[in-house]
Amino acid sequence: AIERTFSILKPDATRRNLTGKINAIYEENGLSIIGQKRILMSETQAKAFYAVHAARPFYKDLVEFMISGPVVVQVLEGENAVTKHRDLMGATNPANAAEGTVRKLFAESIEANSVHGSDSAENAAIEIAYFFAGCELVG
Ligand code: CMP
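That's the Nucleoside diphosphate kinase sequence above. Prediction below.
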């Protein structure tokens, strides 16, 4: 089915001017960018976005990293978008990511891993609504 998923190009990706290369991988694989904006997340936004990880030892560093520079938040649309996007990103830890995936190609570390993607359609809807108004999504 045609789905939507939420994507972030993280500060390590914007810092190295990788947004075009990563977007090309998504577009070449059938994901359309139907909403996109470059923002500097506030600490409040980053903490709330990653609230599910609040008890994890990496939470504080993760929030600091996510506000350390601009990010590009996106909504991707396409056939099986959630799973397709996760397959294109590769494993969270680039050391475990398959050849040709975004994280294998570009990630610097498990924290500076270049991209985020929703892990389910349910979370995609929540994450999309957190960063985008409906009128900003043009399919
Ligand atoms: P993301 O998909 O954005 O979701 C949570 C993020 O926490 C993850 O990508 C990583 O960038 C970051 N992170 C840092 N350390 C870890 C870790 N040990 N395990 C999982 N995620 C981590």
